[in-house]
Design goal:
alpha+beta, 41% helix, 112 residues
Length: 112
């Protein structure tokens, strides 16, 4: 089952400190999930100043139970970074379309 997970950080004074405190563990778990095929794509959500304020992830798990098992150990959940988590079942059409060479994305960033 495919899921879009949107986690929004708290907006209190300590929010960025909490994010940075567990970011390395969050990225390490993300690498594990990419390798296993459970995470297809992830992105930081930015505010108008370019600072991180949340995350959006396209995930694929056999069931909602396995999705919940990931959330139960996700550092942004356990570290109280995400104050709001929305989960949407989704269906990514032709997910292989995102498999482009690194150079494709680098060339687009240079034009930005």
């Amino acid at each position: 089952m495919q899921f879009l997970v949107v986690g929004l950080d708290g907006d209190d004074e300590g929010a960025m400190d909490r994010r940075l405190a567990v970011r390395e563990a969050h990225i390490a778990l993300g690498d594990e999930l990419l390798k296993s095929g459970n995470m297809w794509y992830g992105a930081a959500i930015l505010d108008d100043d370019g600072k991180m304020k949340g995350s959006a992830l396209f995930m694929d798990f056999p069931s909602e139970k396995e999705l919940q098992e990931w959330l139960d150990r996700e550092p942004y959940v356990t570290g109280e970074v995400w104050k709001s988590v929305q989960i949407h079942k989704c269906n990514t059409r032709d997910p292989w379309q995102f498999n482009r060479p690194k150079e494709f994305f680098e060339s687009r960033q240079k034009g930005a």
